Amino acid sequence: METKQEIQKSMMQAVTTVKETNPMAGSITNTVTINFVANAQLAVGGSAAMVYLPDEAAFLAEAGGATYINVGTIFPIYSETLPSVAKILHEKQKPWVLDPVAVGIGSLRTSLLQQFKPFKPAIIRGNASEIIALAGLWELDGGATESKVRGVDSTDEVFAAQHAAIALANWTGGAVAVSGETDLITDGTQVAISKGGSHFMEKITGAGCSLGGVAAVYATATTPFIAALTATAVYNLAGKRAGQLVDGPGSFQQQFLDELYKATAEEIANNPFEMQEVLV
Ligand SMILES: Nc1ncnc2c1ncn2[C@@H]1O[C@H](COP(=O)(O)OP(=O)(O)O)[C@@H](O)[C@H]1O
Ligand SMILES: Cc1ncsc1CCOP(=O)(O)O
Ligand SMILES: [Mg+2]
């Protein structure tokens, strides 16, 4: 296992590379938070492009350094777009981030999420209930088929999803990030616990979605685990700072983007986190 210092060095490198190179990470993401996802990707130094159609998604998958797929709002065309783009990403070994928003609701969403299993996303990002439900859908350890997903919000605590997160990471060979009041990131062999954020993050829509989009930006520049940890760290740092400066969700959203933009590589790497080894 790498030392914490080595991990922090990799996080700083990822942040710096992104700020210097403005990498493009294309997205197929929900219509609720699409604008916030793009703004967050730009704030950390990336470049955003959002599409819905199969040929356009295929183009972005090849042109971008990574791709973000979020199933929050589903359209019929996604039965064509999503499996085909996931297959391309897998075959070309391009990192992609999956946010299984509201897994369990509706037949097309369920079918699409099932079809993703062989295409192994580099990063799976979701709240605890979504991670447990996805592991259940993919018939992995720690998953539950009786899903407690009610909608887009979590009804489970982050640590309840640790087993499922490790099983998913072992399946994909990538990383899994479980978000909540504290965040858990794993690559199946190590677990990082990242701290910070603000209760206002539960009072705006798109904190989770945009975290996934930002993870895709960092995935253009580093390993899935470091990308997921770095994205989570900048969210926890920016969320904490913004939360201290505002008194409501509207101004929080604005201040949060400013803090994402202002956070330096060193500050992001120094945001509090703990490392644990996964014992087998
Ligand atoms: N109560 C909280 N306190 C601090 N940070 C939070 C809290 N709830 C969520 N966050 C942060 O908000 C972001 C999105 O997480 P979450 O709300 O769990 O995702 P989702 O929107 O997908 O349910 C993460 O960066 C997480 O750390
Ligand atoms: C409210 C809502 N409904 C469908 S997608 C979506 C956005 C969910 O955003 P997040 O998971 O980041 O809270
Ligand atoms: Mg979400």
TrEMBL record:
<dbReference type="GO" id="GO:0009228">
    <property type="term" value="P:thiamine biosynthetic process"/>
</dbReference>
<keyword id="KW-0460">Magnesium</keyword>
<feature type="binding site">
    <location>
        <position position="125"/>
    </location>
    <ligand>
        <name>ATP</name>
    </ligand>
</feature>
<dbReference type="Pfam" id="PF02110">
    <property type="entry name" value="HK"/>
</dbReference>
<comment type="similarity">
    <text>Belongs to the Thz kinase family.</text>
</comment>
<keyword id="KW-0418">Kinase</keyword>
<feature type="binding site">
    <location>
        <position position="179"/>
    </location>
    <ligand>
        <name>ATP</name>
    </ligand>
</feature>
<dbReference type="GO" id="GO:0005524">
    <property type="term" value="F:ATP binding"/>
</dbReference>
<dbReference type="InterPro" id="IPR029056">
    <property type="entry name" value="Ribokinase-like"/>
</dbReference>
<feature type="binding site">
    <location>
        <position position="206"/>
    </location>
    <ligand>
        <name>substrate</name>
    </ligand>
</feature>
<keyword id="KW-0808">Transferase</keyword>
<keyword id="KW-0547">Nucleotide-binding</keyword>
<keyword id="KW-0067">ATP-binding</keyword>
<dbReference type="GO" id="GO:0009229">
    <property type="term" value="P:thiamine diphosphate biosynthetic process"/>
</dbReference>
<feature type="binding site">
    <location>
        <position position="50"/>
    </location>
    <ligand>
        <name>substrate</name>
    </ligand>
</feature>
<comment type="pathway">
    <text>Cofactor biosynthesis; thiamine diphosphate biosynthesis; 4-methyl-5-(2-phosphoethyl)-thiazole from 5-(2-hydroxyethyl)-4-methylthiazole: step 1/1.</text>
</comment>
<keyword id="KW-0479">Metal-binding</keyword>
<dbReference type="InterPro" id="IPR000417">
    <property type="entry name" value="Hyethyz_kinase"/>
</dbReference>
<protein>
    <recommendedName>
        <fullName>Hydroxyethylthiazole kinase</fullName>
        <ecNumber>2.7.1.50</ecNumber>
    </recommendedName>
</protein>
<keyword id="KW-0784">Thiamine biosynthesis</keyword>
<comment type="function">
    <text>Catalyzes the phosphorylation of the hydroxyl group of 4-methyl-5-beta-hydroxyethylthiazole (THZ).</text>
</comment>
<dbReference type="GO" id="GO:0000287">
    <property type="term" value="F:magnesium ion binding"/>
</dbReference>
<dbReference type="GO" id="GO:0004417">
    <property type="term" value="F:hydroxyethylthiazole kinase activity"/>
</dbReference>
